[in-house]
From TrEMBL:
Annotated GO CC locations: plasma membrane
Keywords of the record: Cell membrane, Membrane, Transmembrane, Transmembrane helix, Transport
Name listed for the protein in its UniProt record: Methionine import system permease protein MetP
Similarity annotation: Belongs to the binding-protein-dependent transport system permease family. CysTW subfamily.
Positions of transmembrane segments: 20-43, 55-79, 85-108, 149-170, 191-210
Membrane topology term: Multi-pass membrane protein
Domain of life: Bacteria
PROSITE patterns tied to this protein: ABC_TM1
Location within or outside the cell: Cell membrane
GO biological process, one term: D-methionine transmembrane transport
Source species taxonomy: Bacteria, Bacillati, Bacillota, Bacilli, Bacillales
Domain ABC transmembrane type-1: 16-210
Length: 220
C-alpha cells in the first residue's frame, strides 16, 4: 500500500493544488459578490434603511433558484458559459466557474443570517444621528458580523471542497478526478482511501483555521 501511495504521489500533489485552486477562486468570488448580495438582502428587509419588498423579492428568488439546483446539474448547465469564459469545459479553471456560481448565493444567505443577529436598535440609533447607509454598513454591519462572516467563509470553503470532488467526476480536475480515474475506474482501493483521507484532513484544517480566526476577531 505504501509503495502505491509513493507511486501516485506526483499525481496526488497536482490534484491537491488543483483542488486548492478551485476552492480558492470560488471563495474569492463568493467574497467579492456574495458579501454585497447578502448585505443587500439584509438592508432591503422590512424596517431597514433600504427597505424594498420588490428588490428583496427579486434578489431572494434568484439566490434561491441557484441554490436549489443540484451542483452536478449546475455544472453541466453552465458548460456554455464556462466555455465562453475559460475557453474549455474541463480542468480546474473550468470547474471554478460553476463553483463560483454555486458559492455566491450560498455565502450570500450566510451573510444575511449573520447580519440578522445585529441589534436593530444600534442601526436605528445610527440613523437617528444622521449616519449615511454606507457608513452604517462600513462601521456597524460589517464589524458586528465579522466573526459570522469568517465562519460563513469556512462553511463555504468546506462545501466547495465537496463540490470540487463532484466536478472531478466529469473532468474538473482535483482530488475527485484523481479518485475517479485512478481509484474507481481501475478498482484501486489504495487511491480511493488516500484521496478520502486527504479530503478529511483538508476539511479539518480549514475548519480549525476558520474557527481560530473567528474567535480571534470576536471581541464580544
Amino acid at each position: 500500500m505504501l509503495d502505491r501511495i509513493i507511486e501516485i504521489l506526483p499525481e496526488l500533489n497536482t490534484a491537491f493544488f488543483e483542488t486548492l485552486l478551485m476552492v480558492g477562486i470560488g471563495l474569492l468570488v463568493a467574497l467579492i459578490l456574495g458579501l454585497p448580495i447578502g448585505i443587500l438582502l439584509y438592508v432591503t428587509d422590512k424596517g431597514l434603511f433600504w427597505e424594498s419588498r420588490i428588490a428583496k423579492g427579486i434578489i431572494g428568488i434568484i439566490v434561491n433558484l441557484v441554490r436549489s439546483v443540484p451542483f452536478i446539474i449546475l455544472l453541466v448547465f453552465l458548460f456554455p458559459v464556462t466555455d465562453l469564459i475559460v475557453g474549455r469545459i474541463t480542468g480546474p479553471l473550468a470547474a471554478s466557474v460553476s463553483l463560483s456560481v454555486a458559492a455566491i448565493p450560498f455565502y450570500a444567505r450566510i451573510v444575511e443570517s449573520a447580519a440578522r443577529e445585529i441589534d436593530k436598535g444600534v442601526i436605528e440609533a445610527a440613523i437617528a444621528v444622521g449616519a449615511s447607509p454606507w457608513l452604517i454598513i462600513k462601521d456597524i454591519i460589517l464589524p458586528e458580523t465579522k466573526p459570522g462572516l469568517i465562519s460563513g467563509l469556512t462553511i463555504t470553503a468546506i462545501s466547495l471542497i465537496g463540490y470540487s470532488a463532484m466536478a472531478g467526476t466529469i473532468g474538473g480536475g482535483g482530488i475527485g478526478d484523481l479518485a475517479i480515474r485512478y481509484g474507481y475506474y481501475r478498482y484501486d482501493d489504495t487511491v480511493m482511501i488516500t484521496t478520502v483521507i486527504v479530503l478529511i484532513v483538508l476539511v479539518q484544517l480549514i475548519q480549525y483555521l476558520g474557527d481560530f480566526i473567528a474567535k480571534t476577531v470576536n471581541k464580544k
